[in-house]
Design goal:
10-stranded antiparallel beta sheet; 17 strands; alpha+beta; elongated; 7-stranded mixed beta sheet; single chain; 226 residues
């Protein structure tokens, strides 16, 4: 009888241990984690609903990363300051049921000017591949709209448009460029312009001057702010 009672006690203990392990496992599936993210100084249109605005963030601790993404995740308690790049600490709720997590604002870690804002607006081309253009002809133009993450402009004759797929503090990646199909004078200039635009990988803004560079860091297009 003594052995049977001990066996029953041991079985109960085993069940209790399994219950505790099961609860710990469930808690591990939904945990609250603190981390830091960079939030850009501007919002952009969400892909799912273009009437809504999304944060443009980087989950890296360093600004050296070229990985930025739009997110419709909320940051409860955080107010974006236009034009200011802000590193914040947030508490996230990561659930095994979803790849998305909403954030709760904890504190500001670092703040600086978001220089990408200076890209917004209209630019007029001054050089292609370091060659100065004849100002007697219609010069190509470029307009940035960071809210829509789009570029538009005139190649000197034809209108063009495209998406900004990535915009870090140094790097820029453009999607395929759509162009109207009018016959133009000075077609060779427009062709050279669109060819250069398709090779853009980096950018530099200095005052009213914009330089677009290729992957090797060579300046291929320069503009003045209109």
């Amino acid at each position: 009888m003594f052995c049977i009672c001990n066996l029953k006690i041991e079985m109960k203990l085993i069940k209790i241990v399994w219950v505790i392990l099961g609860m710990a496992s469930l808690q591990a599936c939904t945990t609250h984690l603190n981390k830091t993210i960079w939030v850009s100084g501007f919002t952009i249109q969400c892909l799912e609903d273009q009437k809504e605005e999304c944060f443009y963030i980087s989950t890296s601790d360093s600004l050296d990363t070229d990985y930025w993404e739009r997110t419709n995740q909320t940051i409860e308690g955080f107010s974006l300051e236009e034009g200011m790049l802000t590193k914040i600490e947030v508490k996230s709720s990561d659930s095994s049921q979803s790849s998305l997590a909403d954030y709760t604002f904890v504190k500001v870690v670092e703040k600086k000017e978001d220089t990408r804002i200076s890209l917004n607006g209209n630019w007029i081309l001054t050089t292609i591949n370091e060659g100065v253009l004849n100002r007697m002809i219609t010069l190509p133009t470029l307009e940035f709209n960071l809210k829509e993450m789009q570029i538009t402009g005139n190649g000197g004759c034809n209108r063009y448009f495209g998406a900004v797929e990535l915009l870090s503090l140094k790097k820029i990646s453009l999607g395929a460029i759509g162009v109207t199909q009018m016959n133009c004078a000075h077609q060779h200039i427009e062709d050279e312009y669109f060819d250069a635009l398709s090779n853009v990988d980096q950018y530099i803004v200095e005052g009213d001057e914009l330089s677009l560079l290729d992957e090797e860091g060579k300046v291929i297009l320069t503009y003045l702010k209109q």
